[in-house]
Design brief:
It is built from two helices and 28 strands. By secondary structure, it is mainly beta.
Length: 388
Amino acid sequence: MIRKNSSSAIFAIITLLICKSAWAEFIPSEIKLDYPRDITGGIVDPEIAASRLLFAWTNQQRELWVGRLSPFTGEILADQFVKVDTNAVPAYAIGNGPEWVEGANSPSIIYTKYNENGQFILARAYLKNGQWNTVVLANSEGKYGPIGNLNYPNNRPVINYLGRDPDTPKKQTTYWRYLNAPSSEEIVPGSESPNGRWAEDPQELVLSIPTIPGNPDYRQAFSYNINNKQMTQLTFGGESKSAVFMWRAPEFDYQPTFFVLTGERYLQIYYLDQETSLWTYSHAISPPSSNTWLWSPEPIVYKGRTFISMVASPSDNQKSRSIPTEIWLAGIDPQRPFYRKLSDDTIAVRKDPELFTTRNQLYVLFQRIASEEEPNIGTGVFRLNTGF
């Protein structure tokens, strides 16, 4: 017994030293990406279609734009910008910009725009014969914030979005539907804003839902199966949960795995046990930073490993445009703990990290904003090298 514990301790120390050594050798590098000056209002909260290296955003002028990243360098291709639509709702107005969903032959952009009455309505932009086309989704008046599934069979992509609860008009609830079938629309029972994310298994929607009546800020993680209409509670007790993501992780034999952001301080990792078919808690991760509040975590599987990017902040004020922040990368293997600070020591406000891959590199795209301490710092869209 003592020998086993000693071996475990030695292994943990060796693992920690290896991780520290790898971390020490990494030199953070923030590269500002250039783009044409005539791009109205700049690039704001870009959303990447990782498989295509396309990115989309809406600006304060209510325009929907699309750009493209180089598959070799991850830089913005200056001659690949297209203004796709007007009357698009800016990200700041609803808390999220355009998103991507797979189509039959190419990805589509789903987004919120204003109709002729100034009302929210859902829209789709798609490529056909090399040209972007737009269409308003039928029966979507008053709905907003659509999120699509990139893994669903191409002939039946699904989306989820927000709208008023018909029984409680002051309450926002989550709806889902097949993209091209408005009559399929259903309410996700018990849901409230914000809406959820689609799991890698296409019929599963994961989201956080209030579990204490009268306390909308205390939430637990749930999954909802759109086929059998079964709602499953995934987490119980402890601090409030948010930012639920589910995928098949190599670290757990490609079994369904999810994380939740708990108390906005750390990420808890769960996996589906193959023998018991029960969700099992594995461990928690939190970067070794003095900035202990975490935002915007997103996972990606790259070369057989899961990586999660996130923002680390000294404040719980996620909407702040003046408090300096950092961007970190973490792994989820409990036997190989890994953390890497990707941002450099420049005092800046960093937001909305997006992981993407070129032909031979894993990068992070993010927005940098001048802070009150450094008002003259460069702002715009930046790329981070991950070392992978």
